Amino acid sequence: MYAALFPGQGSQRVGMGRALYEASAAAKEVLDRAEAALPGLLKLMWEGPEEALTLTENQQPALLAAGYAAYRAFLEAGGKPPALAAGHSLGEWTAHVAAGTLELEDALRLVRLRGRYMQEAVPVGEGAMAAVLKLPLEEIQKALEGLKGVEIANLNAPEQTVISGRRQAVEEAAERLKERRARVVFLPVSAPFHSSLMAPARERLAQDLAQVPLKRPRFPVYSNVTARPEEDPERIRTLLLEQITAPVRWVEILRDMEARGVKRFLEFGSGEVLKGLVSRTLKEAQALSVQDPDSLKKALEVERA
């Protein structure tokens, strides 16, 4: 038994998905479909430039395509579907493609719009996000008391929390947190994701998502909003929209999976961010990434053990 994890923004890199495309017929089919839905996507993923790939409206479909391609390659090689699945932010959409809730082409077009709307919700430079390290959540919440314009955006690990909001408010929060001996790292992002400033993006995406059919997932997929597995298609539709302005409750998701007996985690797609968060959050868990033929082979050995 294992849980499938799918990464979000920040895990992209030029060349993502290419090795699996060349080695796996299933991955090739997924990526060819992605290219047909969004012409130019594969060139961007494989050749860059990095600045263009990093743009939110490009990065989101690229990560979704790479994550789903890795998952399909794993199934093609004899891997079994997961008992449970979750994705970090954008990755929740990839998890729903893997579970059959959303068709690949619909999801790719929607996450491109999601990225565009998120970028357009706040003028560049007016928002900011910062990672707060080595300080428990309770201490962070105390430091933010009475400070308007900054919110908790991602609960990534017990001592890794991300704050988001108006730049001035985030900078003031950073000073308060440093006084409490936290390490604060400003993130190279183009907008204050998972904050109430993203409300215009949520409203715009609602109109597009309403046009797309959702099916009941083949396996339970956790919502970032509730930190619980969700299976009702209309509830999933609502939660995918709420997710844009709500915090990512990743620590709670991993702990709930562990409580249900999950000890193995496979991260499908580009990078190893989620693998690292598992090891920081769950002491007894085993986590591996699946992003190329070598890591795929290793994951299959572990899953069959």
UniProtKB/TrEMBL annotation:
KW Heme (keyword) present: no
Catalytic residues, chain numbering: S89, H194
GO cellular component terms, semicolon-separated: cytosol
GO molecular function, one term: [acyl-carrier-protein] S-malonyltransferase activity
Pfam families in UniProt: Acyl_transf_1 (PF00698)
Domain Malonyl-CoA:ACP transacylase (MAT): 5-295
SMART domains noted in UniProt: PKS_AT
Highest taxon, organism lineage: Bacteria
Entries under NCBIfam families matching the protein: fabD (TIGR00128)
PANTHER family for the chain: MALONYL-COA-ACYL CARRIER PROTEIN TRANSACYLASE, MITOCHONDRIAL (PTHR42681:SF1)
Stated family: Belongs to the fabD family.
Name recorded for this polypeptide: Malonyl CoA-acyl carrier protein transacylase
Originating organism: Thermus thermophilus (strain SG0.5JP17-16)
Lineage: Bacteria, Thermotogati, Deinococcota, Deinococci, Thermales
